[in-house]
């Protein structure tokens, strides 16, 4: 898989290390050290993937860049963050990044995350799989979900999660089962990632989503 990647990271050691690992995969890497340069590169190069540090010098930090990118593109974005408390915002409706890693990280883990996100994005659904819950209508083949007749935008991870929950309707699933089933067994995320995305699904789809929290175990749809 030959990919083009834009890395926006102002710390040269980290940027160079990521570039080294990405180039080993045969990917084309373009490095930018501030937000404005990153935005220009993303617009000009239309990369397959973006790795974006949050703490950047200049007028635009990584959150600003992510918001700008999301406004016009669904290119997968992996955020680099030094702070756990930013995670909800990063993955949330406002910013819509696909995933994050917390510094310090291993470059090998970043490569694995990138591959996992790209695989999820390319996965095909059974075109006949549809589901309705009250005001919610899901068409997994067309990757469209509507709530109250209005289309709801879901991030790729949220799609994978919803798809897996639908395929296992009525079954209580542990967070680990959801991690493995929805995003692949090579997923490194901690179980809290599931909770973040479940919250997103609930918020976006509203109260008709029959998704129950099963205390001490995990979640059950339907
Ligand atoms: Ca930084």
Structural commentary:
Helix content is 41%, strand content 23%. The protein is built from eight helices and twelve strands. It folds into two domains: 4-121, Response regulator (Rossmann fold, 3-Layer(aba) Sandwich), CATH 3.40.50.2300; 127-221, Winged helix-like DNA-binding domain superfamily/Winged helix DNA-binding domain (Arc Repressor Mutant, subunit A, Orthogonal Bundle), CATH 1.10.10. Helix 2 runs parallel beside helix 3 (62-72) and helix 6 (156-167) packs across helix 7 (175-183). It starts with a strand and ends with a strand. Helix 3 links the parallel strand 3 (49-53) and strand 4 (77-81). Bound molecules: calcium ion (CA). Calcium ion binds at residues 10-11, 53, 55-56.
For the structure shown, list the relevant keywords.
Rossmann fold; 23% strand; globular; alpha/beta; binds calcium ion; single chain; 222 residues; Arc Repressor Mutant, subunit A; 2 domains; five-stranded parallel beta sheet; four-stranded antiparallel beta sheet
Furnish the topology, listing elements before pairings.
Layout: E1 4-8, H1 12-24, E2 28-32, H2 35-45, E3 49-53, H3 62-72, E4 77-81, H4 87-91, E5 99-102, H5 107-122, E6 130-133, E7 136-139, E8 144-147, E9 150-152, H6 156-167, E10 172-174, H7 175-183, H8 192-205, E11 211-214, E12 218-221
Parallel strand pairs: 1-2, 1-3, 3-4, 4-5
Antiparallel strand pairs: 6-7, 7-8, 8-9, 10-12, 11-12
Helix pairs in contact: 1-5, 2-3, 6-7, 6-8
This protein binds calcium ion (CA).
Residues 10-11, 53, 55-56 line the site of calcium ion.
């Amino acid at each position: 898989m030959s990919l083009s990647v834009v890395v926006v990271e102002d710390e040269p050691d980290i940027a160079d290390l990521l570039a080294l690992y990405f180039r080993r995969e045969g990917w084309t890497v373009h490095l930018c050290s501030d937000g404005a340069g990153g935005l220009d590169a993303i617009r000009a190069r239309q990369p397959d993937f973006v790795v974006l540090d949050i703490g950047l010098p200049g007028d635009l930090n990584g959150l600003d860049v992510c918001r700008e990118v999301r406004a016009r593109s669904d290119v997968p974005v992996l955020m680099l963050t030094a702070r756990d408390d930013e995670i909800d915002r990063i993955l949330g409706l406002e910013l819509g990044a696909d995933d994050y890693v917390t510094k310090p990280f291993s470059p090998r883990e970043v490569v694995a995350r990138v591959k996992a996100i790209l695989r999820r994005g390319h996965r095909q659904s059974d075109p006949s799989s549809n589901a309705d819950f009250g005001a919610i209508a899901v068409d997994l083949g067309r990757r469209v979900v509507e709530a109250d007749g209005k289309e709801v935008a879901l991030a790729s991870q949220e799609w994978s999660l919803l798809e897996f929950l639908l395929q296992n309707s009525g079954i209580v699933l542990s967070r680990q089962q959801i991690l493995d089933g929805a995003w692949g067994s090579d997923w490194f995320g901690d179980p809290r990632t599931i909770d973040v995305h479940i919250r997103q699904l609930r918020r976006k789809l509203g109260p008709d989503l029959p998704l129950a929290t099963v205390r001490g175990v995990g979640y059950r749809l339907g």
